[in-house]
Design brief:
The complex is a heterodimer of chains A (366) and B (273).
Chain A: E1 2-13, E2 16-27, E3 31-35, H1 42-50, E4 57-62, E5 65-66, E6 77-80, H2 92-102, H3 107-120, H4 136-149, E7 154-158, H5 166-183, E8 186-191, H6 194-200, E9 203-208, E10 211-216, H7 218-223, H8 228-233, E11 238-246, E12 251-254, E13 257-260, E14 271-276, E15 282-283, E16 290-301, E17 305-312, E18 316-323, E19 336-341, E20 346-350, H9 355-365
Parallel strand pairs in A: 3-8, 3-9, 6-7, 7-8
Antiparallel strand pairs in A: 1-2, 1-4, 4-5, 9-10, 11-12, 11-14, 12-13, 14-20, 15-19, 16-17, 16-19, 17-18
Helix pairs in contact in A: 2-3, 2-4, 3-4
Chain B: H1 2-22, H2 41-44, H3 49-82, H4 87-100, H5 106-116, H6 123-128, H7 138-162, H8 166-174, H9 179-207, H10 211-217, H11 224-233, H12 240-271
The chains are: A alpha+beta (366), B mainly alpha (273).
Bound molecules: adenosine-5'-diphosphate and magnesium ion.
Chain lengths: 366, 273
């Protein structure tokens, strides 16, 4: 049974579409992420769920009740803002208790709930502080507690960790996930950070230019990207242009060398994009029946792995990773090299036009 | 360093000059041996009904114009900023306020007399409505002061209203608060230090005003700044020592208002980061 349902949601600002044909069914207790580059409509969609924006078309329902036209203060949806948005004139405890106070709950009930939540976010003795006396990470925890205090039906988080430094970001996202599990609260989490989306979510919604590119569990998104955009935005896929020699057997021509795709389907003669993960490629013949030869262009040391980029023909380049064990003989720039990888790891994606652009955009984002 | 010189030249030295004058007997002729002798007479003279009244009147006028100008200035600024009015209207109001808040002294008095004075263009209209405005009265002076108090409020409070973040309103709505509850618990408390601070500034602004009152009433109204002018520069019955003592009282009041303003401003800024 779907709990949070968005059906045919659309949002137009003037003549531009911020969100297009957005359909989503989230189960009760599910953790769903919206992942995509900035400007792709994540925040707008989230704000429509919260009621701060009205969809131009479509409906939103929670637990079977249509809330599309309900004002935000009657939706019982908790929101955590990117900027925390704590009230500066109130103590931490008053911030957390605000939702209960405006609901006219008895004072001691509020007090009890606030204490519980302060414990939950590991700030038991900070109730009397003011927001400006807290670090960014602490403020964001308070914002989370404040959103949870009203026992919302749905929890919304808009890039809640983007203003924090990397270490706190990782710790806090684990905390968010564990609290979410504990409460079993249906959650929508907006981020442009793929690692965050993949590590936290039950399902990820990958968005681009106001449209959903793919919805699926993190392993599916990572291993079986449905479009060149998803392939380029998620992970560090190699994207290479190729032409289909024979659609039925998935034989491809890549810069004059022949390889096999993971499954048949593309029409003979089509220009397609081939996606190959760096970790599936091996030096020599051990990797699988697909072979490519090229020239080493770059060798970079990335700590536990060494990433080597190989030029294939005139246009294409392919990167692969090797574990950096002491016995590793890293390649030398300029040497020629033979690589192999399995056909199953050779994804064929329709279209080639914007794959490179999307990758550049994805890199610029991160 | 330049700041130090500036403070010395325009603040410390004049105040010192005023302070020393206020403890000297300057009521007698300069050739009298008692001239310049130390005395506390000037300060005890401040309790004379005439002089005490000037303080009461100044305080009343400043209070009334600060509060009235403050309330209406705030409402106007709020309406223009939050009311979703077009951008150009807003900058027009700000420019107007910038000019109008400096519109004081002789030009203001002249414009005021010309509009609602004995033969002013709006006077017949007022009379027809049963309003008889005595242009030498305190009420008239208060009205005239409002011409610069009101825009000054708009000018100073606008940035504070701008500082109310959209997320605060949204967060409050999100937690179920009504528009009134948002005002009552969030926006108003956040603005309060700025509001109080600005009203205090308006108070000081009115308290120190002299030229408008002088030009409008010809010096007939008994407020502190006019009284100081009379005592220091008047031709008969004047006593510069008393003038200096009056001025010292004013310096004290100004110091308190500026101090209170600074304190409130600091609090407001801490919140609006
Ligand atoms: N209030 C608005 N008025 C006009 N355009 C807007 C408004 N809010 C968002 N947009 C546009 O809608 C698109 C999606 O924005 P947004 O949802 O904020 O993206 P994201 O959160 O994914 O970065 C952007 O092109 C943005 O410029
Ligand atoms: Mg956003």
């Amino acid at each position: 049974m779907s709990y949070l349902t968005l059906t045919g949601i659309q949002k137009q600002f003037g003549t531009t579409y911020a969100v297009h044909e957005f359909n989503l069914s989230a189960e009760k207790g599910e953790f769903v992420s919206f992942l995509g580059p900035s400007g792709c409509g994540k925040t707008t969609t989230l704000r429509m769920i919260a009621g701060f924006e009205q969809p131009t078309a479509g409906t939103i329902s929670i637990g079977g009740t249509d809330i599309t036209h309900r004002p935000p203060n009657r939706r019982n949806v908790g929101m955590v803002f990117q900027s925390y948005a704590l009230f500066p004139n109130m103590t931490v405890a008053d911030n957390i208790g605000f939702g209960l106070r405006v609901r006219k709950r008895p004072k001691d009930a509020i007090h009890k709930r606030v204490d519980e939540l302060l414990g939950l976010i590991n700030l038991p003795d900070k109730g009397g502080r003011y927001p400006y006396q807290l670090s960014g990470g602490q403020q964001q925890r308070v914002a989370l507690a404040r959103a949870l205090a009203i026992e919302p039906d749905v929890l919304l988080l808009d890039e809640p960790l983007s203003a924090l430094d990397a270490k706190i970001r990782v710790a806090l996202r684990k905390e968010i996930r564990s609290i979410q599990r504990q409460f079993g609260i249906t959650t929508v989490y907006v981020t442009h950070d793929q690692e965050e989306a993949l590590s936290l979510s039950d399902r990820v919604v990958v968005m681009s230019e106001g449209r959903i590119e793919q919805i699926g569990p993190p392993p599916d998104i990572y291993n079986f990207p449905a479009t060149p955009f998803v392939a380029s935005f998620v992970g560090t896929l190699n994207l290479l242009a190729a032409q289909v020699i024979d659609g039925a057997t998935a034989r491809l021509n890549l810069e004059g060398q022949e390889i096999r795709g993971s499954k048949p389907g593309a029409a003979t003669g089509d220009r397609v994009t081939v996606a190959i993960r760096p970790e599936t490629v091996e030096v020599g013949e051990a990797g699988g029946s697909n072979r490519l030869t090229g020239t080493i262009e770059d060798v970079s040391f990335l700590g536990s792995i060494v990433r080597t980029r190989v030029r294939i023909g005139n246009e294409a380049s392919l990167s692969f990773d090797q574990f950096n064990d002491p016995g590793l003989a890293a390649g030398v720039v300029g040497d020629s090299i033979a690589l192999s990888f399995p056909p199953e790891a050779t994804l064929v994606l329709a279209g080639e036009a914007n794959a490179g652009d999307a990758l550049e955009q994805a890199i610029a984002e991160s | 360093m330049p700041f130090l010189i500036f403070t010395l030249a325009f603040l410390v030295i004049p105040t010192f000059y005023l302070a020393s004058g206020s403890f000297q007997n300057l009521a007698v002729a300069p050739n009298d041996p008692a001239h310049g002798a130390f005395t506390l007479q000037n300060y005890s003279a401040l309790s004379q009904p005439n002089l005490a009244d000037s303080y009461f009147a100044s305080i009343e006028i400043s209070l009334v114009t600060a509060v009235v100008g403050g309330i209406f200035g705030f409402l106007l600024a709020y309406a223009v900023i939050m009311g979703g009015l077009p951008r150009f209207l807003r900058s027009a109001l700000m420019t107007y306020s910038g000019v109008a808040s400096n519109f004081a002294g002789v030009p203001l008095a002249f414009a005021f007399t010309f509009t609602v004075g004995a033969s002013g263009i709006l006077t017949p209209l007022l009379l027809a409505g049963g309003v008889h405005l005595n242009i030498y009265s305190k009420t008239a002076l208060e009205l005239a002061y409002l011409y610069f108090q009101f825009p000054l409020m708009v000018l100073i409070i606008a940035p504070a209203i701008d500082g109310l973040r959209k997320d605060w309103r949204e967060a409050s709505e999100n937690m179920g608060a009504s528009a009134f509850q948002y005002w009552r618990f969030v926006a108003f408390p956040i603005l309060l230090p700025s509001l109080l601070g600005t009203v205090i500034l308006l108070f000081g602004n009115a308290f120190g005003a002299q030229a408008t009152a002088f030009a409008l009433t010809g010096g007939s109204i008994n407020i502190v700044t006019i009284q100081i002018t009379r005592q220091i520069r008047g031709d008969a019955l004047n006593d510069p020592g008393i003038g200096y003592a009056l001025a010292m009282g004013m310096v004290a009041i100004m110091a308190v208002t500026i101090g209170a303003y600074a304190l409130l401003q600091r609090r407001a800024e801490r919140w609006q980061r």
